[in-house]
Design a protein that fits this description.
This protein is of the alpha/beta class. It is built from 12 helices and 17 strands. It has 2 domains: about 5-10 and about 245-350, D-serine dehydratase-like domain (Lyase, Ornithine Decarboxylase, Chain A, domain 1, Beta Barrel), CATH 2.40.37; about 15-235, Alanine racemase (TIM Barrel, Alpha-Beta Barrel), CATH 3.20.20. It is elongated. The structure holds pyridoxal-5'-phosphate.
Length: about 350
Protein backbone atom coordinates (compact mmCIF):
# COMPACT_ATOMS: atom_id res chain seq x y z
CA UNK A 1 0.00 0.00 0.00
CA UNK A 2 1.16 3.54 -0.74
CA UNK A 3 0.71 6.69 1.35
CA UNK A 4 -1.54 8.11 -1.38
CA UNK A 5 -3.96 5.21 -0.87
CA UNK A 6 -4.58 5.92 2.84
CA UNK A 7 -8.12 7.10 3.45
CA UNK A 8 -8.50 10.15 5.68
CA UNK A 9 -8.54 11.31 8.37
CA UNK A 10 -5.64 9.07 9.39
CA UNK A 11 -2.61 9.03 11.67
CA UNK A 12 0.57 8.76 9.65
CA UNK A 13 3.95 8.21 11.28
CA UNK A 14 7.29 8.65 9.56
CA UNK A 15 9.04 5.48 10.72
CA UNK A 16 12.52 6.91 10.20
CA UNK A 17 11.77 9.89 12.46
CA UNK A 18 10.12 7.61 15.02
CA UNK A 19 13.18 5.35 15.15
CA UNK A 20 15.50 8.35 15.52
CA UNK A 21 13.39 9.79 18.36
CA UNK A 22 13.45 6.43 20.14
CA UNK A 23 17.20 6.04 19.67
CA UNK A 24 17.97 9.66 20.69
CA UNK A 25 16.18 9.34 24.03
CA UNK A 26 17.63 5.87 24.63
CA UNK A 27 21.19 7.09 24.03
CA UNK A 28 20.57 10.20 26.14
CA UNK A 29 19.52 7.99 29.08
CA UNK A 30 22.36 5.53 28.44
CA UNK A 31 24.89 8.37 28.33
CA UNK A 32 23.84 9.52 31.79
CA UNK A 33 23.65 5.98 33.15
CA UNK A 34 19.89 6.21 33.77
CA UNK A 35 17.22 3.66 33.16
CA UNK A 36 14.65 4.76 30.58
CA UNK A 37 11.12 3.57 31.34
CA UNK A 38 9.14 5.30 28.58
CA UNK A 39 5.52 6.20 29.10
CA UNK A 40 3.47 4.44 26.42
CA UNK A 41 0.30 6.48 27.04
CA UNK A 42 1.43 8.52 24.02
CA UNK A 43 1.28 5.77 21.38
CA UNK A 44 -0.67 2.91 23.03
CA UNK A 45 0.82 0.51 20.49
CA UNK A 46 2.54 -2.69 21.76
CA UNK A 47 4.84 -2.88 18.71
CA UNK A 48 6.15 0.64 19.37
CA UNK A 49 6.66 -0.20 23.05
CA UNK A 50 8.73 -3.17 21.89
CA UNK A 51 10.81 -0.90 19.64
CA UNK A 52 11.53 1.22 22.73
CA UNK A 53 12.49 -1.87 24.74
CA UNK A 54 14.75 -3.14 21.94
CA UNK A 55 16.47 0.25 21.94
CA UNK A 56 17.37 -0.27 25.60
CA UNK A 57 14.38 0.79 27.70
CA UNK A 58 14.01 -1.06 30.99
CA UNK A 59 10.27 -1.67 31.25
CA UNK A 60 7.46 0.75 30.42
CA UNK A 61 5.06 3.11 32.20
CA UNK A 62 1.32 3.18 31.59
CA UNK A 63 -1.33 5.39 33.11
CA UNK A 64 -4.25 2.94 33.20
CA UNK A 65 -4.64 -0.61 34.39
CA UNK A 66 -6.39 -1.38 31.09
CA UNK A 67 -3.30 -0.18 29.22
CA UNK A 68 -1.15 -2.46 31.38
CA UNK A 69 -3.43 -5.43 30.59
CA UNK A 70 -3.10 -4.82 26.85
CA UNK A 71 0.70 -4.44 26.97
CA UNK A 72 1.08 -7.54 29.19
CA UNK A 73 -1.09 -9.62 26.84
CA UNK A 74 1.41 -8.69 24.10
CA UNK A 75 4.32 -10.05 26.12
CA UNK A 76 5.63 -6.96 27.93
CA UNK A 77 6.53 -8.18 31.38
CA UNK A 78 7.78 -5.17 33.36
CA UNK A 79 5.16 -2.45 33.74
CA UNK A 80 4.82 0.50 36.11
CA UNK A 81 1.32 2.00 36.36
CA UNK A 82 2.54 5.52 37.21
CA UNK A 83 -0.77 6.32 38.79
CA UNK A 84 -2.81 5.47 41.87
CA UNK A 85 -5.01 2.35 41.64
CA UNK A 86 -8.04 2.68 43.90
CA UNK A 87 -11.22 0.61 44.29
CA UNK A 88 -12.13 -3.07 44.64
CA UNK A 89 -12.86 -3.69 40.95
CA UNK A 90 -9.45 -2.46 39.85
CA UNK A 91 -7.59 -4.19 42.67
CA UNK A 92 -9.04 -7.56 41.63
CA UNK A 93 -7.67 -6.99 38.11
CA UNK A 94 -4.39 -5.66 39.48
CA UNK A 95 -3.56 -8.82 41.43
CA UNK A 96 -4.43 -11.02 38.47
CA UNK A 97 -1.94 -9.06 36.41
CA UNK A 98 0.68 -9.10 39.19
CA UNK A 99 0.55 -12.91 39.06
CA UNK A 100 1.85 -12.79 35.51
CA UNK A 101 4.32 -9.89 35.25
CA UNK A 102 6.61 -7.58 37.20
CA UNK A 103 4.05 -4.89 38.10
CA UNK A 104 4.28 -1.67 40.10
CA UNK A 105 1.89 1.12 41.01
CA UNK A 106 2.17 4.61 42.51
CA UNK A 107 0.78 5.33 45.97
CA UNK A 108 0.16 8.54 47.88
CA UNK A 109 -2.06 7.36 50.71
CA UNK A 110 -1.57 5.00 53.69
CA UNK A 111 -5.09 3.57 53.40
CA UNK A 112 -4.45 2.71 49.76
CA UNK A 113 -1.21 1.02 50.88
CA UNK A 114 -3.16 -1.09 53.38
CA UNK A 115 -5.79 -2.11 50.82
CA UNK A 116 -3.21 -2.97 48.17
CA UNK A 117 -1.32 -5.03 50.76
CA UNK A 118 -4.45 -6.91 51.79
CA UNK A 119 -5.48 -7.90 48.25
CA UNK A 120 -1.91 -8.87 47.37
CA UNK A 121 -1.56 -11.07 50.48
CA UNK A 122 -4.90 -12.73 49.78
CA UNK A 123 -3.82 -13.45 46.21
CA UNK A 124 -0.31 -14.49 47.27
CA UNK A 125 1.41 -11.96 44.99
CA UNK A 126 3.98 -9.24 45.55
CA UNK A 127 3.31 -5.82 44.03
CA UNK A 128 5.95 -3.16 43.44
CA UNK A 129 5.25 0.31 44.81
CA UNK A 130 6.64 3.75 44.04
CA UNK A 131 5.95 6.52 46.55
CA UNK A 132 4.35 9.30 44.50
CA UNK A 133 5.70 12.71 45.49
CA UNK A 134 4.12 16.04 44.62
CA UNK A 135 7.00 18.06 43.23
CA UNK A 136 4.91 21.12 42.43
CA UNK A 137 2.27 19.90 40.00
CA UNK A 138 -0.35 19.46 42.74
CA UNK A 139 -2.16 16.63 40.95
CA UNK A 140 -1.32 13.53 42.97
CA UNK A 141 1.53 12.70 45.32
CA UNK A 142 2.44 13.33 48.94
CA UNK A 143 4.31 16.37 50.17
CA UNK A 144 8.02 15.56 50.34
CA UNK A 145 8.04 15.55 54.15
CA UNK A 146 5.38 12.80 54.19
CA UNK A 147 7.31 10.51 51.84
CA UNK A 148 9.26 8.80 54.65
CA UNK A 149 6.14 7.90 56.58
CA UNK A 150 4.49 6.45 53.49
CA UNK A 151 7.63 4.51 52.50
CA UNK A 152 7.69 3.07 56.03
CA UNK A 153 4.07 1.95 55.62
CA UNK A 154 4.95 0.25 52.31
CA UNK A 155 8.00 -1.50 53.77
CA UNK A 156 5.91 -2.69 56.72
CA UNK A 157 3.15 -4.11 54.52
CA UNK A 158 3.43 -7.73 53.51
CA UNK A 159 2.50 -8.20 49.86
CA UNK A 160 4.13 -4.91 48.83
CA UNK A 161 7.70 -4.14 47.91
CA UNK A 162 9.10 -0.61 47.86
CA UNK A 163 10.57 -0.07 44.39
CA UNK A 164 11.22 3.64 44.49
CA UNK A 165 10.05 7.21 44.50
CA UNK A 166 8.42 8.95 41.58
CA UNK A 167 7.49 12.53 40.85
CA UNK A 168 6.06 13.86 37.62
CA UNK A 169 7.10 17.42 36.80
CA UNK A 170 4.72 17.87 33.84
CA UNK A 171 3.75 21.37 35.04
CA UNK A 172 7.39 22.48 34.81
CA UNK A 173 7.38 22.02 31.04
CA UNK A 174 4.40 24.33 30.61
CA UNK A 175 5.71 27.91 30.59
CA UNK A 176 6.90 29.30 27.27
CA UNK A 177 9.79 31.21 28.86
CA UNK A 178 12.83 28.91 29.19
CA UNK A 179 13.90 30.66 32.42
CA UNK A 180 10.60 29.84 34.07
CA UNK A 181 10.73 26.23 32.89
CA UNK A 182 14.23 25.85 34.32
CA UNK A 183 13.13 27.35 37.62
CA UNK A 184 10.17 24.96 37.93
CA UNK A 185 12.23 21.91 36.93
CA UNK A 186 14.91 22.75 39.47
CA UNK A 187 12.26 23.24 42.14
CA UNK A 188 10.76 19.83 41.24
CA UNK A 189 14.16 18.22 41.54
CA UNK A 190 14.69 19.89 44.90
CA UNK A 191 11.34 18.66 46.24
CA UNK A 192 11.96 15.13 44.94
CA UNK A 193 15.35 15.02 46.64
CA UNK A 194 13.73 16.27 49.83
CA UNK A 195 11.41 13.27 49.67
CA UNK A 196 14.35 10.93 49.08
CA UNK A 197 16.09 12.36 52.15
CA UNK A 198 12.93 12.05 54.21
CA UNK A 199 12.81 8.34 53.34
CA UNK A 200 16.51 7.86 54.17
CA UNK A 201 16.00 9.60 57.52
CA UNK A 202 13.77 6.67 58.47
CA UNK A 203 16.54 4.22 57.64
CA UNK A 204 14.93 3.12 54.40
CA UNK A 205 16.76 2.94 51.09
CA UNK A 206 14.40 4.63 48.61
CA UNK A 207 15.53 2.59 45.60
CA UNK A 208 14.72 3.99 42.16
CA UNK A 209 14.12 7.74 41.79
CA UNK A 210 11.89 8.23 38.74
CA UNK A 211 11.07 11.54 37.03
CA UNK A 212 10.82 13.09 33.63
CA UNK A 213 8.46 14.36 30.99
CA UNK A 214 9.43 15.01 27.38
CA UNK A 215 9.53 18.78 27.91
CA UNK A 216 11.72 18.60 31.03
CA UNK A 217 13.70 15.36 31.01
CA UNK A 218 16.87 16.81 29.45
CA UNK A 219 17.28 18.92 32.57
CA UNK A 220 15.74 16.75 35.30
CA UNK A 221 17.87 13.78 34.16
CA UNK A 222 21.05 15.70 34.97
CA UNK A 223 20.29 15.36 38.68
CA UNK A 224 22.53 12.59 40.00
CA UNK A 225 19.92 11.19 42.41
CA UNK A 226 17.44 10.61 39.58
CA UNK A 227 17.92 7.05 38.30
CA UNK A 228 14.91 6.45 36.05
CA UNK A 229 13.28 8.55 33.32
CA UNK A 230 9.65 8.30 32.23
CA UNK A 231 9.04 10.59 29.25
CA UNK A 232 6.27 9.70 26.80
CA UNK A 233 5.63 12.21 24.03
CA UNK A 234 9.20 12.18 22.67
CA UNK A 235 8.40 9.17 20.46
CA UNK A 236 6.17 11.27 18.22
CA UNK A 237 6.71 14.83 19.50
CA UNK A 238 4.06 17.51 18.89
CA UNK A 239 3.60 21.26 18.57
CA UNK A 240 3.50 21.72 22.36
CA UNK A 241 7.06 20.41 22.49
CA UNK A 242 8.13 22.43 19.45
CA UNK A 243 6.95 25.61 21.20
CA UNK A 244 9.04 24.65 24.20
CA UNK A 245 12.18 23.85 22.21
CA UNK A 246 12.03 20.17 23.19
CA UNK A 247 11.32 19.18 19.56
CA UNK A 248 11.56 20.59 16.04
CA UNK A 249 8.92 20.40 13.31
CA UNK A 250 11.13 17.86 11.53
CA UNK A 251 11.31 15.60 14.61
CA UNK A 252 7.51 15.40 14.80
CA UNK A 253 6.99 11.83 13.59
CA UNK A 254 3.20 11.81 13.63
CA UNK A 255 0.85 13.81 11.46
CA UNK A 256 -2.86 13.71 10.92
CA UNK A 257 -3.55 13.32 7.22
CA UNK A 258 -6.78 15.05 6.18
CA UNK A 259 -8.68 15.92 3.00
CA UNK A 260 -10.20 19.24 1.97
CA UNK A 261 -13.88 18.26 1.80
CA UNK A 262 -15.39 21.66 1.03
CA UNK A 263 -14.02 24.80 -0.54
CA UNK A 264 -16.61 27.41 -1.24
CA UNK A 265 -14.36 30.50 -1.19
CA UNK A 266 -10.71 31.49 -1.46
CA UNK A 267 -10.70 32.64 2.17
CA UNK A 268 -11.63 29.36 3.79
CA UNK A 269 -12.19 25.64 3.41
CA UNK A 270 -13.18 22.67 5.56
CA UNK A 271 -11.13 19.53 6.19
CA UNK A 272 -12.56 16.14 7.16
CA UNK A 273 -11.02 16.14 10.65
CA UNK A 274 -12.46 18.07 13.57
CA UNK A 275 -12.57 17.60 17.31
CA UNK A 276 -13.37 13.88 16.94
CA UNK A 277 -10.05 13.32 15.21
CA UNK A 278 -7.78 15.83 16.89
CA UNK A 279 -9.37 16.14 20.32
CA UNK A 280 -9.01 19.82 21.12
CA UNK A 281 -6.80 19.71 24.16
CA UNK A 282 -5.14 22.71 25.85
CA UNK A 283 -7.30 24.94 23.65
CA UNK A 284 -4.79 25.00 20.80
CA UNK A 285 -5.18 23.91 17.18
CA UNK A 286 -2.90 21.63 15.16
CA UNK A 287 -0.39 23.14 12.77
CA UNK A 288 -0.36 22.52 9.03
CA UNK A 289 2.90 21.32 7.50
CA UNK A 290 3.90 21.64 3.90
CA UNK A 291 1.45 24.37 2.82
CA UNK A 292 1.85 27.96 3.99
CA UNK A 293 -1.17 30.04 4.91
CA UNK A 294 -3.38 27.16 6.08
CA UNK A 295 -4.71 27.74 9.60
CA UNK A 296 -7.37 25.84 11.52
CA UNK A 297 -9.40 28.35 13.55
CA UNK A 298 -12.34 26.27 14.74
CA UNK A 299 -13.49 22.67 15.15
CA UNK A 300 -16.85 21.03 14.96
CA UNK A 301 -16.93 17.30 15.54
CA UNK A 302 -16.27 16.21 11.96
CA UNK A 303 -14.88 19.41 10.44
CA UNK A 304 -11.79 21.48 10.80
CA UNK A 305 -12.60 25.06 9.83
CA UNK A 306 -9.64 26.40 7.90
CA UNK A 307 -8.63 29.97 7.08
CA UNK A 308 -6.64 30.33 3.86
CA UNK A 309 -4.16 33.16 3.68
CA UNK A 310 -2.20 34.60 0.75
CA UNK A 311 -1.48 32.10 -2.03
CA UNK A 312 -3.17 29.29 -0.14
CA UNK A 313 -6.55 30.73 -1.15
CA UNK A 314 -6.01 29.79 -4.77
CA UNK A 315 -3.55 26.90 -4.32
CA UNK A 316 -5.55 24.71 -1.95
CA UNK A 317 -8.11 22.69 -3.90
CA UNK A 318 -11.07 20.51 -3.09
CA UNK A 319 -9.85 16.97 -2.45
CA UNK A 320 -6.35 18.13 -1.54
CA UNK A 321 -4.64 16.23 1.27
CA UNK A 322 -3.27 18.36 4.09
CA UNK A 323 -1.08 17.15 6.99
CA UNK A 324 -1.17 18.57 10.50
CA UNK A 325 1.03 18.20 13.57
CA UNK A 326 -1.26 17.85 16.62
CA UNK A 327 -0.81 20.37 19.42
CA UNK A 328 -0.97 17.58 22.02
CA UNK A 329 -0.34 14.20 20.43
CA UNK A 330 -1.52 11.78 23.19
CA UNK A 331 -5.29 12.50 23.15
CA UNK A 332 -5.22 12.70 19.35
CA UNK A 333 -3.76 9.19 19.06
CA UNK A 334 -6.42 7.95 21.46
CA UNK A 335 -9.09 8.87 18.88
CA UNK A 336 -7.84 6.44 16.22
CA UNK A 337 -7.90 2.64 15.79
CA UNK A 338 -4.80 2.48 13.63
CA UNK A 339 -1.56 4.25 12.85
CA UNK A 340 0.06 3.96 9.44
CA UNK A 341 3.85 3.75 9.63
CA UNK A 342 5.33 5.06 6.37
CA UNK A 343 8.79 4.72 4.88
CA UNK A 344 9.05 7.10 1.93
CA UNK A 345 5.89 6.65 -0.15
CA UNK A 346 5.10 3.20 1.15
CA UNK A 347 3.05 2.10 4.14
CA UNK A 348 5.46 -0.23 5.92
CA UNK A 349 3.35 -0.87 9.05
CA UNK A 350 -0.30 -0.75 10.03
CA UNK A 351 -0.28 -0.65 13.83
CA UNK A 352 -3.42 -1.26 15.90
CA UNK A 353 -3.72 1.30 18.70
CA UNK A 354 -4.55 -1.59 20.99
CA UNK A 355 -4.50 0.30 24.28
CA UNK A 356 -6.67 3.19 23.13
CA UNK A 357 -9.79 4.20 24.98
CA UNK A 358 -8.90 2.41 28.21
CA UNK A 359 -10.84 4.32 30.81
CA UNK A 360 -10.25 1.96 33.72
C1 LIG B 1 3.08 10.19 35.62
C2 LIG B 1 3.51 10.49 34.24
N1 LIG B 1 4.76 10.14 33.86
C3 LIG B 1 5.22 10.38 32.62
C4 LIG B 1 4.41 11.00 31.68
C5 LIG B 1 4.97 11.27 30.31
O1 LIG B 1 5.16 12.63 30.14
P1 LIG B 1 5.20 13.31 28.68
O2 LIG B 1 4.09 12.69 27.92
O3 LIG B 1 5.03 14.74 28.96
O4 LIG B 1 6.51 12.99 28.10
C6 LIG B 1 3.11 11.37 32.03
C7 LIG B 1 2.26 12.05 31.05
O5 LIG B 1 1.15 12.45 31.29
C8 LIG B 1 2.65 11.12 33.34
O6 LIG B 1 1.42 11.48 33.74
Amino acid sequence: MYRDEIDTPALVVDVGVLRRNIEDMASFARGLGKRLRPHVKTHKVPEIAKMQLSAGAGGICVQKLGEAEVMAAEGIDDIFISNEVVGAQKMARLVRLAEKIELSVAVDDPQNVQELGRVCREAGVELGVYVDVDSGMHRTGVEPDKAGLLAEAVVGTEGLKLVGVMSYEGHAGGPLEPEERRRLIDESIRLTIEAVKDIRRRGIEPGIVSMGSSATVRRSATCEEVTELQPGMYVFNDWYLVEREAAKPETCALKVLTTVMSKTSNERCAIDAGSKAFHLDMGRYPVCVGVEGVEIYKFSEEHGWVRLKGDAGSRVKLGERLSFIPYHVCPCVNQFDIIYGVEGDRVAYVWQVKARGKMT
